[in-house]
Amino acid sequence: MCDMYIYAFWHYSQLSTNFIRGIYIVYILGDINMLCKYCGSEEVVKDGKVKGKQQYVCRSCGHKFVEGSDFPKMRVESRIISTAIDMYYEGLSVRKVQNQLQKIFGIQIGKSAIWKWLIKYSKLVSQYVETLRPQPLGVYHVDETAIKCKGVQKWFWEIIDEQTKFLVASHLSGSRTTEDAIALFEKSIRVAKRKPVSIYCDGLPAYVDGYNKVFYTMRKDTRPELIRRVGIKAIHNQNAVERLHGTLKDRLKAARGLKGEEKVRMLLEGWVVHYNYVRKHQTLKGKTPAQASGIDMQNDWNVLVKEATKFNTITAKKDSVEEKPIEVVVE
């Protein structure tokens, strides 16, 4: 064991960047303390062996698991999975992600496995971050952009907060109707838990109709200001949301056409998570939009997946306790 640690330290010193060193440390040495993969509890005890691997049981949540990946029911190391997800949403194709994993970790992963990771953990983390409460400053920019799905044009709607760059709400649709604008505005209220101060949009009539349905009130002190006719030649511009479009299109270029609306919807939700919680912004002095919006979360898919798994485990445990019938003793 001592020789392995000496070799690992020597190999660590030969690596070129801190990023690769960090990956190598976790991959070679692993975690010293055994924690529950589901709830993160330290109340873990050995529970025999399964196919030659040590099995553990958590006294806190009751889940059983074996040695290996930090992610439940996964054979591949958690850092490899999270690195693959990060690379994909940074703009690499699945094939290039596959090649990079081979170079960094020396492990061959199939493209179908990478796709499964993307779909599974994009959905898991996307549902988790909906429970968090960002605090955008309330100056919203609204716009939509066209994307192709199986050769059919779809519309991706976004609301971005001007100061924090937080993507408050998004919506995928096949049209640009009032109903789509209403769905987008209502989602922004669910996420931010309050109405915005002002809304900047272009001349699309659906925005006005949606605004009147969701935000309009006779009281001026509680009514968001609607500012239309923004653009290059106008007083106000949409630079924030147009830059967001550029980031999205950079990701879609490597995809070479999106196939299947449900898969597209899930991948877009994962991209929104990556944009808000993982990708740092220069204008925010190296912070993520989530950190700028008051959410203290490390910008790492590995951390996000673990927090999402822990949240789901604790929530399921609470629900099972609440649903448990109460026995009534009759004397």
Could you provide a short overview of the structure?
With 331 residues, the protein is α/β, with parallel strands linked by helices. Helix content is 47%, strand content 15%. The radius of gyration is 23 Å and the shape is globular.
What does this structure look like?
With 331 residues, the chain is of the alpha/beta class. Among the domains are: 70-131; 139-294, Nucleotidyltransferase, domain 5 (2-Layer Sandwich), CATH 3.30.420. 47% of the residues lie in helices and 15% in strands. It has helices spanning 2-14, 18-29, 78-89, 94-105, 111-129, 178-192, 205-214, 239-255, 261-278, 289-292, 301-323; strands at 44-50, 53-58, 64-66, 139-149, 152-161, 167-173, 198-200, 225-227. α5 crosses α9. The longest helix is centred in the C-terminal third of the chain and has 23 residues, at 301-323. The termini are far apart. The relative contact order is 0.12.
Structural class: alpha/beta
User: What count of helical segments does DSSP give?
Assistant: 11
Secondary-structure element order, as H and E?
HHEEEHHHEEEHEHEHHHH
Q: What is the average of the pLDDT values?
A: 83
Rg on CA atoms, Å? 23 Å
Notable features of this structure?
331 residues, Nucleotidyltransferase, domain 5, 5-stranded mixed beta sheet, 3-stranded antiparallel beta sheet, 11 helices, 8 strands, 47% helix, 15% strand, globular, disordered C terminus
